Amino acid sequence: MASTIEVAGLVKTFGRTRALDGLDLTVRAGEVHGFLGPNGSGKSTTIRVLLGLLRADAGQVRLLDGDPWRDAVALHRRLAYVPGDVTLWPNLTGGEVIDLLGRLRCGIDPRRRADLIARFELDPTKKGRAYSKGNRVKVALVAALASDVELLLLDEPTSGLDPLMEEVFRTCITEERHKGRTVLLSSHLLDEVEAVCDRVTIIRDGKAVESGSLAELRHLTRTAISVELAGPPIGLAELPGVHDVHVDGTRVRLKVDAAALDGVMRALTAIGLRSLVSQPPTLEELFLRHYVAER
Amino acid sequence: MSTLAGTGALVRLILRRDRVRLALWIAAIVVVTVASAAALAKLFPTPESRALFAAGITGNQTFVALIGPLFDATTIGGLIAWRLGGFGAVVVALVSLLTVVRHTRAEEEAGRRELLGSAAVGRHAALAAALLVTGGADLLVAVLVAAGLIACGLPAAGAIAMGLSFALAGWTFAAIAAVAAQLFETARAASGIAGAMLGAAYLARAVGDAEGGSWLSWVSPIGWAQRVRPFAGEQWWVCAFAATVAAALATAAQTLSARRDLGAGIVRPRPGRATASRWLGGPFGLAWRLQRGALLGWTIGFAVVGAALGSVAESIADLLNSSPRIRVLVATLGGQGAVVDAYFTAVFGILGLVASGYGIQATLRLRSEEEDARAEPVLAASVSRLRWATSHLVFAALGPAIALAAAGVTAGFVHGAPDDVPRLAATAMVQLPAVWVLVGIALALFGAAPRFARASWGALAGCIVLGQLGQPLQFPSWAMSLSPFTHLPRPGSGGVEAAPLLLLLATASAFTLAGLLALRRRDLATA
């Protein structure tokens, strides 16, 4: 089995709203897959279709080699889910919810449960209504991470967590990857996705607009270069692959497509370099290019 | 008055949010009351016809216990006040208490009160706004009922007194709900306790009236509403008394609200278990945790009600032996045993309606679990929709059975010999097929049209109107047959027929099955 999740041409409409509009998504076994998109782009809807909570209107959806609508119960034994907006039963304690959800999946590892509760600094004796948003998220995370499952579906799992807890979360996801588990991590936090994910799919208005490994996506992005030159910067703007050139005397700021980097560097050294600062391409830039261009 | 700052804005907010809801219940109460009054006036146009009807009532304490004392049967107004007064007061009280809790504790529990509280809104504004809107709606009911009755040609004083008696019941229970909303952390608990107080008030009145108007009738706000005596020598001081009690309770609620933190009740939360017990291992264990409080509360409540109804049966038996004339009358009705049996069949019929309320409440728990996104993690684990739904359905079906059995058993113990116990338990449980039809309707709506799942309360309201008013107003038989309760054994009809019960069971199963199948095919509601 190469792909844990295989989605092609998925369509889901709510009345007149087209929440998913021909979405493609492939998550390979054993990888941590980032699912990036702004609020309302269809991330949660996709995950709910994968869970068989919503029925697809069109398209193919395969999850762990099964049909998420028809084989829901059998598939759910092999996965754990953290919803984007965690609500707990007001009269059940966090510890009880963790055990309940664990038993509803395929059992829970008590040592791992205790370890995770300690690492997330969670008080499992509090009642559901007494938890803050961050602590409700921790309950759902501990329940999911302590379950012995193949696949983790995490819908913006760090919303509400403080930076220290976010760090704990990232460490946990890295451990899961070493154990060979597959993770689909939906997020709108780019640094989080860059820190833990192998591959990324970017979704906009219910369609995947970009998909690939971090290295492949970086390839699509531009390196920002800021230089002080020995001579007048002539002809730089005309070079192929150069964008956003700002000239201030002999100081130049510009952006270069990854493919054109070699040619631009040759041209710069030909003029003569006094100083050079280059910034690595970030997903943020790619992300912004896809989203800002729309407006 | 800075603690009341923003009350006006909150009143407008409630009116905006509840414009349909408020208009619907006000219109329903007014239309049903005035239309029933007009129909009664047509049925008993002459003093002779009214005297004949009244003679049948006074010989039968069952009517007095169920409906209330008949103060004056010589005028049509007196008859109308007797037949509709207590019933209307209970309905107005119920919607009033639900409205107050909905806009106080429920808002607080949902966290919206916090957002409002951060604005320039006084500490007491939310409570004051909820009471103002509810009290105002009750007053509007009073005015419209009075106007409607005057339009039917009834005396103005009596019409106004009848309208006021409705409003007073509403105000008193709005204030009781306001106090309950301060004491308990959850809206469920607050409306549960206030609803239990309403049940207790009805019961105290029933027992007191059956005993010929003892002190028990005077501790009950429903009893007060009846003792305003519209069209039967109005006692206006009772209005002043009831209004004072309501005002005192509202003040108490305000004092309590000044002494507590936002979101807190008087019971402090304690830490619970760090790990789940063996019982909490699946959807059924979860449903048990979520439903056990309601099951316990309803069973205890029904047991208490059963005991009280059993004791009323004693006073009925006493009365039947009191005079030779009545004994002759009773003999023509099939003897004392038959009269007491008819009484139990009638009161358990009312309990059946109440038990349906429990059944619908337990079924709709599925909907609130879905709406509040708590069903999602369960269904995202290895639980099929069928298993999830049936784990709650077990409580909706068996909960009312246990509660009704408890009422029958305690009634039997209080009423008499041990061999009465199984007989009365059976009389109570005969209601179940009709209860299950309503549970089935609730589940069918939940499965097929989840957004309208709560319309199942409308089905129960329809059954109540048909059951309470259908016979005296001589509704056509096709309309009567719509209510499953019409097909249950009638008071005084003797034996139990199996065929109608089997038909009800089949109907209930069909609705349930349709609901479960539809649930399997639809999308889950998303936040």
Name the descriptors.
heterodimer; A: 295 residues; alpha/beta; 6-stranded mixed sheet; 33% helix; 31% strand; B: 527 residues; mainly alpha
Describe this structure in words.
The complex is a heterodimer of chains A (295) and B (527). The two termini of chain A are 41 Å apart. Chain A has ten helices and 13 strands. Chain A has a six-stranded mixed sheet with strand order 5-6-7-3-8-9, sandwiched between helices. In chain A, strands 11-12-10-13 form a four-stranded antiparallel sheet. Chain A has 295 residues and is an alpha/beta fold. Chain A has helices at 43-50, 72-76, 94-104, 110-119, 133-145, 163-178, 190-196, 214-220, 261-271, 283-292; strands spanning 3-14, 17-28, 32-36, 58-63, 79-82, 151-155, 182-187, 199-204, 207-213, 222-229, 242-248, 251-257, 273-279. The longest helix of chain A has 16 residues, at 163-178. Chain B has 527 residues and is mostly helical. Chain B has two domains: 1-262, no CATH class; 278-521, no CATH class. In chain B, helix 13 packs antiparallel against helix 15 (335-371) and helix 19 packs antiparallel against helix 20 (456-469). Chain B starts with 6 loop residues before the first helix and ends in a 6-residue tail after the last helix. The mean pLDDT of chain B is 88. Chains A and B meet through helix 1, helix 2, strand 5 and helix 3 of A and helix 13 and helix 16 of B.
Content of β-strand of chain B: under 5%
**Number of DSSP helical runs of chain A:** 10
Question: SSE string of chain A, helix = H, strand = E?
Answer: EEEHEHEHHHEHEHEEHEEEHEH
The total tally of domains of chain B equals 2
Largest two-chain interface = A-B, 45 and 36 residues
So how many helices of chain B?
22
Quaternary organisation: heterodimer
Shape assignment of chain B: globular
Residues in helix, % of chain A: 25-40%
List low-pLDDT spans of chain B: none
What is the arithmetic mean of pLDDT of chain A? 87
Largest sheet of chain B: none
Question: What's the story with the biggest beta sheet of chain A?
Answer: 6 strands, mixed
